[in-house]
Design goal:
alpha+beta; single chain; Alpha-Beta Plaits; 2 domains; 198 residues
Length: 198
Amino acid sequence: MKSNNKIAGVGLLTAIAASLCCITPVIAIIAGTSGLASTFSWMEPARPYLIGFTILTLGFAWYQKLKPQKEVDCNCDTEEKKSFMQTKLLLGLITVFAAIMLTFPYYSHVFYDNNASVNAIEEGNAQKSEFTIEGMTCASCEEHVTHEILQLDGIGNVDVSYDNGNAIVEFDKSKTNQKEIKEAINSTGYSVTETKNL
């Protein structure tokens, strides 16, 4: 039974590892150290493998837990009570936590307060720029970059895409500029590699 706990523990660790690249930006915002956001972005290419390994490991742990035990013919009346570490409840809790970790990128937006008011920009002061960003790997990265840009004055619309590796920002050039927006993006730990006017 102890080996079953080790298998479940390995499944839990791989689930956490698979989500580190997506959890780190949220932790960075909460901790106020947004520069740490891209710390684990290098793990993104391994994410599908870690997810697969997590599912296989936890599936095997459940198989071990649920398979029928061989009856041993003995005249003893002692039936040992299992400790919590050997119960289906613990394995169930580990499985639920692993599922929460694996699906984190799909609901990470709830941790970001991107409700900053979008400013109305006078037509003469409106400018739209595209910032090419390196290092974003998931929706959580998008939310983090959007959050940092919206902290600036004079921001209109912000459209960040990790698929395209860019941010398109509409802003009031009398209140902010490309340099400040670039610095805000770079402060997240991701890097702006190119800026162009649209």
